[in-house]
């Protein structure tokens, strides 16, 4: 099941996307369909917090490929 997330970055710009947790991995998808997937086995963060961090990383690197 995909979960939608939306928040404002430090500059007040809206960051949004979706995340899904499956088989010990979290996959975050930005509106432009870029994705980032990481293992969550050792994460001490909530899945939503981890998703926000990953989405923010993609937001900061707009235009750069993240995962092929």
Description:
The protein has 68 residues and is an alpha+beta fold. β2 (14-22) and β3 (25-29) form a beta hairpin. It has one helix at residues 47-60, and strands spanning 3-8, 14-22, 25-29, 35-39. It has one domain (3-60). The mean pLDDT is 87. It has 1 helix and 4 strands. The chain has a 4-stranded antiparallel beta sheet with strand order 1-2-3-4, with helices on one face.
Task: Provide a concise account of the structure shown.
By secondary structure, the protein is α+β, with helices and mostly antiparallel strands.
Number of domains: 1
Secondary-structure element sequence? EEEEH
Distance between the termini: 23 Å
What is the averaged pLDDT score? 87
Strand content: 35-45%
Estimate the global geometry from the Cα principal axes: globular
Report the sheet with the most strands, covering strand number, pairing sense and barrel closure. 4 strands, antiparallel
Whole-number radius of gyration?
A: 11 Å
């Amino acid at each position: 099941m995909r979960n939608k997330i939306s928040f404002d970055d430090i500059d007040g710009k809206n960051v949004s996307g979706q995340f899904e947790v499956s088989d010990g991995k979290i996959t975050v998808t930005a509106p432009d369909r870029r994705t980032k997937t990481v293992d969550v086995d050792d994460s001490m963060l909530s899945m939503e917090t981890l998703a926000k961090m990953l989405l923010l990383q993609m937001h900061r690197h707009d235009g750069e490929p993240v995962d092929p």
